[in-house]
Amino acid sequence: MIPVLLIAIPLIGGLAGFFIKNDKSARSWSLLISLAALVISLWGLSVGAKSPLLHADAEWLPGLGSRFTVGLDGMGQILCLLTAIAFPVIFIATWRDEYRKAWNFYALMLLSQAGLMGVFLAMDALLFYFFWELALIPVYFLCSQWGGERRIQATFKFFIYTFVGSLLMLVGIIWLYSHTPDHSFSLKSFYGLRSIVGGADQVWMFWLFFIAFAIKMPIWPLHTWQPDTYEQSPTATTMVLSGIMVKMGLFGMIRWLAPVLPLGTWAWGDTASGLCITGMIYASLVAIKQDDLKRLVAYSSIAHIGLMALAIFATTATGMQGVMIQMFNHGINIIGMWIVVDLIERQMGTRKISELGGLAQKAPALAILLVIVALANVALPLTNAFVGEFLLFSGVYSSKVTQYNVVFTVVAGLSIILSAIYTLNMIQKVFFGNTNALTEKAKDIKFNEKVVLAAIVVLIVVIGVYPKPVLNLTKETVDMILTKMDYKKI
Amino acid sequence: MIQLVWLVPVLPLAGFLINGLFRNSLSKGMTSIVGCGVLLASFILSLLIFGEVRQENFQAVTVTLFDFISVDKLHIPFAFQVDQLSILFLLIITGVGFLIHLYSTAYMHEEEAPHFARYFAYLNLFVFSMLLLVLGANFVILFIGWEGVGLCSYLLIGYWFKNIDYGNAAKKAFIMNRIGDLGFLIAIFWMINQFGSVNFSEVFTAAPGTSTAVLTGITLLLFVGATGKSAQIPLYTWLPDAMAGPTPVSALIHAATMVTAGIYMIARSNILYSLAPLTQNVVAIIGLATALLAATIALKQNDIKKVLAYSTVSQLGYMFLGLGVGAYTGAVFHVMTHAFFKALLFLGAGSVIHAMGGEQDIRKMGGLKKYIRTTHWTFLIGCIAIAGIPPFSGFFSKDEILAGAFAKSPVYYVVGVFTALLTAFYMFRLYATTFLGNFRGTHDQEHHLHESPSAMTIPLIVLALLAAVAGFLGVPEAFAKNSHWLGHFLEPIFARGAVEHAAEGGVSQEWMLMGISVVVALIGVIAAWTRFSKKPDLAEPSGFGKVLANKWYVDELYNAIIVRPLYAISKFLNNVIEKWVIDWLVNGVGRLVQYGSRQLRLLQSGQVGGYVLLMVIGILALFLVELFVKK
Amino acid sequence: MPINYYIFLSLALFCIGVAGVLTRRNAIIIFMCVELMLNAVNLLLVAFSKMHLHALGTGNPQAGIDGQLFVFFIMVVAAAEVSVGLAIIVMMYRNTHSIDVNFLNRLKH
Amino acid sequence: MGITQILFWVLSIMALVSAILVVISKNPVHSVLWLIVVFIAISGHYILLNAQFLAIVNVIVYAGAIMVLFLFVFMLMNLNADTEPQKNKWLKIAGVVAGGSLLLVFVAALKHADMKNQLAEMNKGDIGLIHNLGMALFQDYVVPFEISSVLFLSAMVGVVVIGKKD
Amino acid sequence: MNAIIISAVWGILMMFSGIVSDKGPFIRNVAVIGLALLLVGNYLDLIGYHFFAIDAHKMLFFDTFGLLANTVIFGSTLIYVLLSGRDIEKIAQRMPVAECFALVFFVLCGVSLVTTFNTLLMLFLGIEIISIPLYILTGSDKRNLKSNEASLKYFLMGCFSTGVMLLGIALLYGASPTGSFSIDELGIGRSNLSALYMAGLLLLLVAMGFKVSAAPFHFWTPDVYDGAPTVFTSFMATIVKAGIFIGFIRLFDETFSDSQTKWQLFVAIITAVTLFIGNITAVFQQSVKRMLAYSSIAQAGFMLLALLSINGLAREGILLYAAAYSLATIGIFAILIKMKDYTFEGFNGLAKHHPLLAATCTIFLLSLAGIPLTAGFFAKYYMLASVIETGHYLWLVIFAVLCAAVSVYYYFRVIQAMYFKDGDAQVIETRSGFKGLLVVVAALIILLGVFPNLLLDKLNTLIYTW
């Protein structure tokens, strides 16, 4: 019931949105819809994990052995909540952005929300793939319609890139499906495969899936689409991309890869981890030299995602919990970052760090909020990210599936320092120092932006101080996944 | 009462929130009242708690607020631990903190209200984090405070954010701390992996059962953290730069409290260290080296705050020496006394700077003693105390450490004493150049000279008193039995870990040691006094002096071997690898397709003959496959 | 007569036809070569039909008749093709006074 | 070596030679004439194989009607040797080589055919007679027969559409 | 049988309808009625009610597979005529519309032969009945040199392939133990093949490959599709191709399924080459029409996957593919015909001036690209699934999806042109009826994309009983 609503409300709302030929009302409409979705997902949190309301199942393609099965488990809850929170926040934060034919813009946004929800809710491989693409298409149009001047090439690259990945995944899905004893796409039968599919095959399948997810996350060296796309897309879309979409990759790995192909995951875990770590350090280093705020955030995001992926391969309860909570945190924090970037860009008309400076004098409130968000980005204690990264690292350190756990931790740890470097550089160059001709006329932020950022800050601190509820939410999922991932038990 | 300990940190937090959120509406008066009031309140609260703690056979109390993180086997409660050590630090922090807040109200008075409020908010936040650090009942809470204070020092160093250099100094501080923190974090993960817990109680009880190698590793990593926070080699260079912050900040954070966090942490985990002798030696050597290095540098500094900063580094080195040789009480004792006299000295310096209208170069001062008397006297007391001349506090604490060092190895002792000599020398060089002789500043500076308001002088006086008498809390056993009150007080903490060497060598030896150090100190004092009171050295340093003046070129070294390469690499990755390797490959695929397309379409020649020919070739190919390949 | 002879004979004719198609530019000649190919096939079919008769004739006197009928149909189709083909060629000739296939190169790439 | 064999060889050589001549002769009209010779030779084979009906039809339809049509078109366009376009020599060689190798491959593929020692019934067996063929055609093959009428219709219509002046 | 006879008869009727009146609408309506009749008749056949009791002597076999294929094909023809029928008149002045429709019907007759043949003779006749009218239709724009050229090229190469096909048939005949052309007799017990049989098989593969434009026998396709009047290009590229494909599958399924392992490799090679050439070459095209020609080659490559793995999934899939591919392509061509300029630039900014055309066109393109929620996705899905089901040729599958990714490149170029590039795309008048129909087609594609079982459940039940 609830899952269906979560998908249906934005979907229908979005489709309807195409026909509101008026910018203002379209905007309000989309906000309304997204708030409705938020309410629903909160309801979903309230009903309790055992409630039948959290699952829905219907005949879809009997011939293919695929059913319309959706459900909210812990991980689904947390990610749906993130999605549900993100969209209203985005809509309010970008309330003042102007778009040509805004109704199409908002409609597409809602459609992508529907797709994302679907991805997080689907309990059926084919359905999962469906939503996976459904989330991609609207974003493609959003970016190449309302993006920057190099938008078309950038987003096209992004689209083809991810499309290649998802097609490979499709092959993997079909292959697995054809090996399920009951010829079904259901998650259950897929989880049954871990003992049926032999090691050699699992390795192949692992790569088919991993590439798809790695592109989405993105993991080095498959990341080059990301900075361009983030730079070129309209900020609202960038928020969706970086706040939620990248989680699709992690989510996919946790739900559809690791437990389904434990042998493959185990066999290539170290290699993949190596990639993740290389990515973290690489991205952090590159981030230091970025002059474009968007690119900076993009690279920092690559680094953070790499850490989460790393923790998945570590296969420890702490690490997995860390991933869960960090997926949420990263979403919140990076959206916060984007909001600030958007504000700066809209006021100053530039994202070039070198052209900015001394904003703290003109816009103290903005400065303070940014500093807090940025500090969350560098995982300072009592911010949400600290909890996440602490768990992630300690998970990686105590990993039993690799003998390199210490090396991994130490090397990955360097990214903590690097992240401090580039974040503080950015803060200093943008907000401190003296104002220049451009930043002279800067004004402080408006009410709605204050509200949104304040809300984000509150979330940051609250989760940073009292993460327990979030952790409890995903406990069962984590245990389930870990038991499935235990390759020794095959 | 102890159950209310959570109020102690929460009050400053409240202060922070009030000052932070309403910074635009609050008047300066209100701000200062809130800022200082919360501190006073928690100081009183700490006193009350102290009253309970100091009773005999008091057992450490753990106050658990809530469950912070709990994932399958790992449980990290958000808990405070009240025992002799933490209460001692509690008193120092809140006490000295309060005085410095008070001092600030006057010192920062030129700032406009919002920034004034911002200042106090930061200060309160700092106190909050520091209290968190010392109260935490497990390493994670400790770490939270640990990074919290780092943040606050970052914010306060960069308080005047318009000045890029200050910003850089702040950044440097934060990042260097981060480097240390990484070590700390890894140590924590190791502990989790090893003991399955980070709570002091559990870790320390489990420690004796674990292999020395592991403990050495953990303790070394913890020490890396300490070097960052407490400005030891190799991570000390941030502290002198940190003087960019307002002087009271330097007094509170970069002298009295934060920088002693490392000492606190090691003292706290003394059990682990006592089980890892290797680490102890490392700590001792590093500490000693730092003490010496910093002292030498301090000899040639002309910025009044820089001198104090390096003396701080040097004194911290002493404390680590104490920790290294197992004289934990001595170390903690020195933390306390140092807190008093160093705070005093900084505030004094602040008062001087205040009087000089922002001038910090001692070469432009001189003969100030007749203009600012209170400051002068208090500053003098501070100098004597740090120089280690009995009966002022510095003497007792430093002597205890030296005694411990001697017990460990005479070499330590000799170097320590030599450092003491230097300390006495440069402190009195500072004193003499600043207060004696005749005024060398500009004319209007001379007019401007005036004694600071009482809000500044009162703290000075109080601190001066403390600096003078605090030593009697730890009178060596040599004078009278059980005269070492602090030692008894801290016994429950260090009983198992520490070994009190002091008594071992017999009373006579101890007298001798004291004698030596006193003599040495006096030599230094007199040498400096005679040399600089009349004709201070204003000449540009040359030869070896130049090297010292330039701080052994360590900053330049770091720049050359770390900072620049880092930026170079990042530039290389960004401009070369990213663009011309990875992305080039990705786009290369696209280009390859394009190219292939352009070539393939030439097959479509438009000639029927050609088409048929290709068809025939296709047929041929199929038959050839059939004939040969399939066989 | 061994069937192989017929097989190779008609294959030879067929390939000559193919070679013709490849070597000539005159549309009609090309077309004629195609006719040659068809005839080669016809011959082969007839030969096979007789072969089948020889093989199965005892049981079924009508064996192999399908082959010859097929040939009949091929002729039918060939006739139809010729009519259409020549029509197209003529139309072509009307527009460009040539029947050279090399001139058919407006459409390429 | 009986008369049949002799005739077989004669006809075969005749067919092959004239087929080659079709391909190589410069003058299109000559090609047509040589093609007629090929057809006649093939008809001869039909007779050898005792398929009189096909032989007749082949002569009438092919050698008669169709070839005349070809000739007619040639006359219409009055093509002759000197207007005959020539491919450049390399393409020709390529074509010949391709055709030759095709033959080679076919032969290679079929020389081991399992029925290579099967015989083709010569000059006896009456399935080739009009009577039998007619029976079969109008009983079993009536449907394809009708269908082929559709084929003719479409061809007719087509020719009309194309050829109609406009 | 109904379909064959009705289409033939209606073809003749169309010829004479030209005499009654040469008004375009009238002729079109007659055609539409005919098609409706065809659909009905075919459906009656499907449910086992035959108008004519004719003994085909096992030369035709009306199974559900063939008849369903007919339904799909006639259905798409109906849509085709409704969408683009009136554009036939516009090809040239004094265009013999009636005759053209007659030819279309004859082609349909051929198609319905090819979908239900049971002897190679019928296959041959069917193919010829399809080809000969197509030669004409290709050249129907008489004054247009491109049209002539296309027609002549098509004709010459078509004849050549006919020759190849006949040789193949002849060899098979020789190899057949019972001396018959009937595919059920050819098929029996062919686990190990005589050289003759194998040669015949390969030649048939080549000839049929030529008809469905499989590389390297595809060379006629781009030129012919490009040269032919766009209306008929659409017809050729969709309905005819689909029909012949059904025949292709049927032939190999019925005749050679026992020896599948022997020839799978060849099909795999051809498929790979086709996918490669089709997709890669399409990338560089400047004219949308020509691009679609190449894309049709690429799509053929995908359909060949069904031939590679002849199994239940393949049979269902090929029908779904035929439907999805035909619908989408007909739709795009219908829009393309309305464009003044066939190059990609010609589509610039279409979305601004004609949002509806752009939107529907986008859906068709997405379907061709095989994006989920469109019929094209499930079509491709079935192809891939069927191959994976066989357990071999995973490399081919991966290669295929990579090619599909390439295909996105050129399909999306159109979308980019329509939506993200500025320009004023010139469009000749479009009636509201036309637009409405486009929307219906698009809706149909989406519907099949979400619930393919609307079409497939029938098959599941029917095919497995067959």
Explain the overall architecture.
The complex is a heteropentamer of chains A (490), B (631), C (109), D (166) and E (466). Chain A contains 20 helices and 2 strands. By secondary structure, chain A is mainly alpha-helical. Chain A has a two-stranded antiparallel ribbon with strand order 1-2. The two termini of chain A are 35 Å apart. With 631 residues, chain B is mainly alpha-helical. Chain B has 25 helices and 2 strands. In chain B, helix 17 runs antiparallel to helix 18. Chain B starts with 6 loop residues before the first helix and ends with a helix. The model of chain B has no long low-confidence stretch (mean pLDDT 88). The model of chain C has no long low-confidence stretch (mean pLDDT 89). Chain C has 109 residues and is mostly helical. The relative contact order of chain C is 0.13. Chain E is mainly alpha-helical. Chain E contains 19 helices and no strands. In chain E, helix 3 packs antiparallel against helix 4 and helix 13 runs antiparallel to helix 15. The longest helix of chain E has 31 residues. Chain E is globular and about 65 Å long. At the C-D interface, helix 1, helix 2 and helix 3 of C face helix 1, helix 2, helix 3, helix 4 and helix 5 of D.
Give the structure's gist in a few sentences.
Chain B has 631 residues and is mostly helical. Helices cover 72% and strands 3% of the residues of chain B. The longest helix of chain B has 47 residues, at 554-600.
Helix content of chain E: over 70%
pLDDT average of chain D, as an integer?
Answer: 87
Count the strands of chain D?
A: 0
Q: Roughly what fraction of the amino acids of chain E lie in strands?
A: under 5%
Number of β-strand runs of chain E: 0
Tell me the layout of helices and strands.
The complex is a heteropentamer of chains A (490), B (631), C (109), D (166) and E (466).
Chain A: H1 2-17, H2 23-46, E1 55-61, E2 66-71, H3 74-93, H4 102-121, H5 125-146, H6 151-179, H7 187-196, H8 199-216, H9 225-232, H10 235-257, H11 262-288, H12 293-314, H13 317-348, H14 359-362, H15 364-377, H16 384-397, H17 405-431, H18 437-440, H19 447-465, H20 468-485
Helix pairs in contact in A: 1-2, 1-4, 2-3, 2-4, 3-4, 3-10, 3-13, 3-20, 4-5, 4-10, 5-6, 5-10, 6-8, 6-9, 8-10, 8-11, 9-12, 10-12, 10-13, 11-12, 11-17, 12-13, 12-16, 12-17, 13-15, 13-16, 13-19, 13-20, 15-17, 15-19, 16-17, 16-19
Chain D: H1 3-24, H2 28-48, H3 52-76, H4 89-110, H5 130-139, H6 142-163
Helix pairs in contact in D: 1-2, 2-3
Chain E: H1 2-20, H2 24-46, H3 64-84, H4 97-116, H5 120-138, H6 145-175, H7 183-187, H8 195-211, H9 220-227, H10 230-256, H11 260-283, H12 288-308, H13 312-338, H14 350-353, H15 355-369, H16 375-390, H17 394-419, H18 432-450, H19 453-465
Helix pairs in contact in E: 1-2, 1-4, 2-3, 3-4, 3-10, 3-13, 4-5, 4-10, 5-6, 5-10, 6-8, 6-9, 8-10, 9-10, 9-12, 10-12, 10-13, 11-12, 11-17, 12-13, 12-16, 12-17, 13-15, 13-16, 13-18, 13-19, 15-17, 15-18, 16-18
Keyword list:
heteropentamer, D: 166 residues, mainly alpha, 6 helices, globular, E: 466 residues, 19 helices, 76% helix
